[in-house]
């Protein structure tokens, strides 16, 4: 089974990487693909350039077997829609390969508002990363969308290519890309918030020159 983890990664940090590793191990994934956002649709554009975000992500996962960076959204000239990305992956990897799309709780809570959520469920499982024992209230449209799809067994995801929803407890670190950018602006240390390889690539905001690509 292949895991798909999309995001702006602006920049990538340990709050992304540790939960991803928890899912990778719990579901015995063959590989976990990180997909950095290309062109934002419903959010402001990332602070860092596409090239720099890609380089930081590649540096962050370089020494973890099974982790890889998929640059298809970065390379595309079209807006980044999850349903389009998954269709591209399906065309490349076949209809029978099980995919699971990793989501945080906030993203899942709004999943019913995404573009073509039912089609997404036809192409991938959803793995919702959450803190152990944390309850989640589902709004009626989302509850109707996932009715009959929720499973508590990771093995169920490997038995079909798509369509199930799993709530997976993970180690959640209260780290945000927004806070990291703020610390950069203030000239503060990022030690133990991002991998050292990422910190070496990050520019300092006091420098007004264009960010490197």
Plain-language structure description:
It is a single chain. It contains ten helices and seven strands. The protein has a seven-stranded parallel sheet with strand order 3-2-1-4-5-7-6. It is of the alpha/beta class. The longest helix has 13 residues, at 14-26. Helices cover 37% and strands 16% of the residues.
> Number of folding domains?
1
CATH third-tier fold name: Rossmann fold
Q: What is the residue-averaged pLDDT?
A: 91
Largest sheet, if any?
Answer: 7 strands, parallel
CATH class: Alpha Beta
Low-confidence stretches: 206-213
* CATH H-level superfamily title: HUPs
The class by helix and strand makeup works out as alpha/beta
Question: Count of DSSP helices?
Answer: 10
Distance between the first and last residues' Cα: 33 Å
Strand content: 15-25%
Structure, briefly:
The chain has helices at residues 14-26, 50-61, 72-75, 82-93, 105-109, 117-123, 140-146, 155-158, 177-185, 196-201, and strands at 2-7, 31-36, 67-69, 99-104, 125-130, 150-151, 165-169.
Describe the secondary structure blueprint for this structure:
Blueprint: E1 2-7, H1 14-26, E2 31-36, H2 50-61, E3 67-69, H3 72-75, H4 82-93, E4 99-104, H5 105-109, H6 117-123, E5 125-130, H7 140-146, E6 150-151, H8 155-158, E7 165-169, H9 177-185, H10 196-201
Parallel strand pairs: 1-2, 1-4, 2-3, 4-5, 5-7, 6-7
